[in-house]
Design a protein that fits this description.
This protein is α/β, with parallel strands linked by helices. The chain has eleven helices and twelve strands. Helix content is about 35%, strand content about 15%. A hairpin with a 5-residue loop joins strand 2 and strand 3. It is globular and about 65 Å long. It is an enzyme of class 2 (transferase).
């Protein structure tokens, strides 16, 4: 696999420590922290070909290539040699968000002020806090402006926040399967998932590390709830329908009768084995809090008035979690500000997860857009 011309091969993550305090939106301060990141491709002499990829809820800095342990990057079909975001042309950076459980400072790390694991004491972080931390790493890498900042889902929120918070720091903003704010329904799903964790007896108020336990049951249910929202009804029907698992008739019990039940439990068990419960709580709250128009009396066009970037916004027809209507809302607000916007609404059956999959129409849109960016490089 590592010898193929369209793969980056084995990629080693890097870390960078920051000892200058980072003020957070909550009023708290993170005084010492580390960010884990990966880079792909080569920064050109003009240093104008850098692209930042922002990750979604359960992803990380490992965007593409193969990790030393053999894991393939979560967006490996998008980023790499000859791929839509072509690392033969671009220097791509993936950064793990603060509060995560994949290397950057988070609840699983020691609090330098107490010498104990943060656990539930890790401060709340927002999308804007992540962007501020990413901005510091950008400067440390000697990059003065991104050719593009790109993300899907929660990553798309970060890309949008970049264009608002640091308008001169990016030339293009690529927002895929995202939204300018969560609907009440989305917040409700997140809260139900959080309650599953918070009420797990093994959670111990977020300090389960000290008790030698893991709130696996809560994490398992939280993931099952989340996963339902990532898929469309049509996709579920095609993949699973009402097929029974390993039987010809109902079991008349509370075990696993249907294939969809088996699939969700598998996803839940897998997630509980690698994800941190406090991280899940933090990230879903960051999702809930994101609303750049809040400071402008709900007027998104006013929130975007200071932006300077050009935009590609893409949505998927069956994504009911972050529906096309929310993407159109962003487009309309940008057009009102006379920004240059390309919009693609892909008729895809896979629901929210479509942004991670191999859809030729979707990938061709991204490929063409980045080819255009490449033509602007020095």
């Amino acid at each position: 696999m590592t010898d193929s011309s369209d793969t980056l091969g084995v990629v080693t993550p890097q870390t960078m420590n920051f000892d200058v305090a980072l003020p957070l939106q909550s009023g708290a301060v993170l005084r010492d922290y580390t960010l884990m990141y990966e880079t792909y491709g080569t920064l050109n002499a003009a240093r104008d070909n850098a692209v930042l990829i922002c990750h979604a809820l359960n992803a990380s800095h490992h965007v593409a290539g193969v990790s030393p342990s053999g894991d393939v990057g979560w967006w490996d079909n998008m980023v790499g040699p000859g791929k839509p975001v072509d690392t033969n042309r671009f220097f791509v950076v993936g950064i793990n968000n603060l509060g995560s459980c994949f290397g950057s400072t988070g609840p699983m790390h020691l609090n330098p002020e107490t010498g104990k694991i943060y656990g539930a004491d890790f401060p709340f972080v927002t999308v804007e806090d992540w962007v501020d931390a990413q901005y510091r790493l950008m400067n440390a890498l000697g990059i003065s402006q991104w050719a593009a900042v790109m993300g899907g889902s929660l990553g798309g929120m970060q890309a949008l926040a970049w264009s608002i918070r640091y308008p001169a720091a990016l030339r293009h903003c690529v927002v895929i399967a995202s939204t300018p704010k969560l609907s009440a329904q989305n917040i409700a799903f997140n809260d139900v998932a959080r309650q599953a964790i918070l009420t797990d007896p093994d959670f111990h108020g977020g300090h389960f590390y000290e008790h030698g336990t893991l709130p696996r049951r809560g994490l398992r249910v939280a993931r099952m709830i989340g996963h339902i929202t990532y898929l469309s009804d049509d996709d579920m029907a095609e993949k699973f329908g009402r097929d029974l698992r390993e039987r010809d008739d109902y079991g008349f019990g509370y075990g696993v009768d249907f294939e969809i039940e088996s699939y969700l439990r598998y996803q839940g068990d897998k997630f509980a084995d690698y994800f941190d419960a406090n991280t899940y709580l933090l990230i879903t709250k960051a999702l809930d809090y994101f609303d750049p128009a809040r400071l402008f009396e709900g007027d998104l066009s006013r929130a975007l008035a200071s932006t300077q970037a050009q935009y590609l916004i893409a949505s998927f027809s069956t994504d009911w979690r972050f529906s096309p209507e929310r993407s159109r809302e962003m487009v309309q607000a940008l057009v009102k500000n006379r920004r240059t916007v390309s919009y693609a609404e892909i008729d895809a059956k896979h629901g929210h997860d479509a942004f991670l999959l191999n859809d030729p129409r979707y990938h061709n849109v991204v490929r063409a857009y980045f080819a255009r960016i490449s033509g602007e490089l020095s």
